[in-house]
Write a structure and sequence with these properties.
With 442 residues, this protein is an alpha/beta fold. The chain folds into 2 domains: 189 residues, MutS, DNA mismatch repair protein, Chain A, domain 3 (Orthogonal Bundle), CATH 1.10.1420; 217 residues, P-loop containing nucleotide triphosphate hydrolases (Rossmann fold, 3-Layer(aba) Sandwich), CATH 3.40.50.300. The protein contains 16 helices and 12 strands. Helix 13 packs parallel to helix 14. The termini are far apart. The relative contact order is 0.13.
Length: 442
């Protein structure tokens, strides 16, 4: 079973973007190889949904972090190797019989470019195999109890196979004879191409593990513990947004007795940031990656749908309110098709008048709350909706992000408190900006 997400969710949480420094993917994308970057993106595109696989990946990354193991390869080895393996034209196959006077003459005058490209690819793969052999033999505590043991053993089996072990005899990969190059070419490109590609893929995964481990160490991220689906465990301590400097941490616990979080607070109090932080932590945890928190335990979910920065749709003629309605319908259908999801709605039904927004918020929240297998986080400015839901539902955790007034100046703590806020400071902010004075003068 896959972990279900959609583009709206990845956009809301800021997972991908052109400027990596401002997106979650960019935090972890410190890989040495292009192949490693592609593997990392694949992991981000398809989070895991099985607790055993999630915990297994987390243990591997933590192992590399604790041992402070560095990636042993030069980045410039891999592009020539990939380019070489991509050339499967049988007419370019080297043969020992081609090592004649004409070829030697072309080589001497520098015109034998095709051979040079093949020789460079062969040399790169030979060096990769030799470096890998040394690396695997020197990994500390890499016995059967090591989290990385299975993958390390798979790579050792490949490089010590009858087909590839001849590479380990080369002392200087950059000075391989023509005859040996032709032999390696036959092996690498034609006899064992799939095996060599498999080996490179395992190295790219290694690149990702080491890159993520370094990120976890530098940022002091924690490793989440995944519990089986349906265990009813969801607890995060010291949660914060990974892209904010001096972010204020918060802790939250969710269970089947309080599986809906109803969040209130004034504008700029931090509601959207908290919801994004929660969603990012859940996303990364389901990848088996370290999370921006002090600790985290969670029951595996089937997917996540967020609605935080929902645009209208001019092309379809949708107003913002109708876009919200369409989104709620999609989420409702997804809940019907999945056992347990995380659903986040920021400012539900903000695109309509207060009366309709109140009625719709109460009706939809009450209907969602009846599904106790899912986790819901709903924020709103309409505090009256919270008071009504208090009377109707017994499984809603009401929290707020308060505002403290220093005279006429609002100050935000960004720390969660229990209950429903009564803060209404919109007009104070308008007056503080002098808007009314400007209009009066005009």
């Amino acid at each position: 079973m896959i972990f279900r997400i959609d583009k709206q969710t990845t956009d809301d949480l800021g997972i991908f973007g052109k400027n990596n420094d401002r997106f979650v993917y960019g935090i972890f994308n410190k890989t040495v190889t292009n192949g490693g970057s592609q593997v990392l993106e694949e992991m981000f595109r398809y989070p895991l949904s099985e607790d055993e696989k999630i915990n297994e990946r987390g243990k591997i990354i933590r192992f590399f972090q604790e041992k402070e193991i560095a990636f042993p390869f030069k980045s410039e080895l891999f592009d020539p190797a990939e380019s070489y393996l991509a050339n499967t034209d049988n007419r370019t196959r080297l043969s020992a019989y081609q090592d004649n006077l004409e070829r030697k003459f072309r080589s001497a005058i520098g015109s034998d470019t095709e051979y040079k490209q093949i020789a460079k690819g062969v040399a790169s793969i030979v060096e990769i195999i030799c470096v890998l052999d040394k690396f695997l033999k020197n990994i500390p505590d890499s016995g059967p109890g090591c989290p990385y043991h299975t993958q390390a053993s798979a790579m050792l089996d490949i490089i010590n196979s009858d087909s590839l072990k001849a590479s380990l005899q080369e002392k200087n990969p950059n000075k391989i004879t023509y005859a040996r190059t032709a032999e390696f070419d036959q092996t690498f490109r034609f006899n064992c191409r799939d095996t060599v590609k498999q080996l490179l893929q395992l190295i790219y995964q290694l690149d990702v593990y080491i890159s993520v481990a370094r990120c976890a160490r530098d940022r002091n991220f924690a490793y989440a513990e995944a519990m089986p689906e349906g265990a009813g465990v969801f607890e995060i301590k010291g949660l914060y947004h990974p892209l904010l400097k001096n972010a204020v941490p918060n802790s939250i616990k969710v269970d089947q007795k309080s599986n809906m979080i109803f969040l209130t607070g004034a504008n700029m109090a931090g509601k959207s940031t908290f919801m994004k932080s929660f969603g990012i932590a859940v996303y990364l945890a389901h990848m088996g990656f370290p999370v921006p928190a002090e600790s985290m335990r969670f029951s595996v979910l089937n997917g996540m749908f967020t609605t935080i920065n929902l645009p209208d749709n001019i092309n379809k003629g949708y107003s913002h309110f109708y876009a919200e309605v369409v989104r709620v319908r999609k989420v409702a259908e997804s809940i019907g098709n999945s056992k347990n999801l995380l659903v986040i709605f920021d400012e539900l039904f903000r695109g309509t008048n207060v009366k309709d927004a109140y009625d719709a918020t109460v009706a939809v929240s009450e209907a969602f709350a009846a599904n106790k297998n899912c986790i819901f986080i709903i924020s709103t400015h309409i505090i009256e909706a919270g008071e009504t839901l208090k009377e109707r539902c017994d499984n809603i955790n009401f929290i707020n992000l308060p505002t403290i007034m220093d005279g006429n100046t609002p100050r935000y703590t960004y720390r969660i408190e229990k209950g429903i806020t009564s803060d209404r400071h919109g007009m104070i902010i308008v007056k503080n900006e002098g808007i009314l004075d400007i209009l009066d003068k005009k």
